Amino acid sequence: MSAVLSCSGLVSGYLNRPVLHGVSLDIPQQGVMALIGPNGHGKTTLLRTLSGFLTLRAGHISLNGTDINRASVHARVESGLIHVPQGDQLFTEMTVEENLLMGAYLCVDGAEVSNRLNEVFALFPKLKDRRNQMASGLSGGERRMVGIGRGLMADAKLLMLDEPSLGLAPLVIEQIYEALGHLRQSGMAFLVVEENPSRLLSFADSLCLMDAGHIVWRGTAEEAKSSGDILKTYLGGQ
């Protein structure tokens, strides 16, 4: 299967401190690739580099075969590369529906925007019930649903999710991953970052392990399960 996004030799970081050291990935057109590894070893930096928030110091990125090395964040979003960052980052003085509509700001077809909104409400029924509620009054799980829903409103070709389960109760995490499972079945491509990736072993098609800014292992979930060293060192012995 051809890649929706390919990157090779990525070097990136903050100020004079490089964090990524020659990272290369090919993300398939469909399915879930999980990016796992210890906290502070480059997972979020990779997503921020792919989405254009961090300057690429070396390497190459292409989206559906088109070079996006110099593309702006706006241009990458327009091309379907959508990054749902760690944490909520909502417009707290806007309603749930207004936050969701911000994700579709590039779409000028009102009927299409309405269709996308209905699809998000079908995926997260709680948001439909709270569509007129201010985002500041939502629970942590509801805020996460709005963040993911806003990303979906942008008509993603690749949806990059940074720690979608961070800080949430187990029942809410179950609801989030149930919704993501429905999206997976629709054929969407995902790159999902999790520090505690136990759920990804049954959700992801492939996993890449980051350590100290390098991809040090890649394989299927079944291969991860059969690797005692991987499970013990990075997955908590699950």
TrEMBL record:
The entry's keywords: Amino-acid transport, ATP-binding, Nucleotide-binding, Transport
KW ATP-binding (keyword) present: yes
One GO BP annotation of this record: L-amino acid transport
Domain ABC transporter: 5-237
InterPro entries attached to this UniProt entry: ABC_transporter-like_ATP-bd, ABC_transporter-like_CS, BCAA_Transport_ATP-bd_LivF, P-loop_NTPase
CDD domains named in the record: ABC_TM1139_LivF_branched
Molecular-function GO terms, alphabetical: ATP binding; ATP hydrolysis activity; branched-chain amino acid transmembrane transporter activity
Pfam families (alphabetical): ABC_tran (PF00005)
PANTHER family membership: HIGH-AFFINITY BRANCHED-CHAIN AMINO ACID TRANSPORT ATP-BINDING PROTEIN LIVF (PTHR43820)
Record family assignment: Belongs to the ABC transporter superfamily.
Stated name of the protein: High-affinity branched-chain amino acid transport ATP-binding protein LivF
Protein source organism: Roseovarius aestuarii
Designated gene of the protein: livF_9
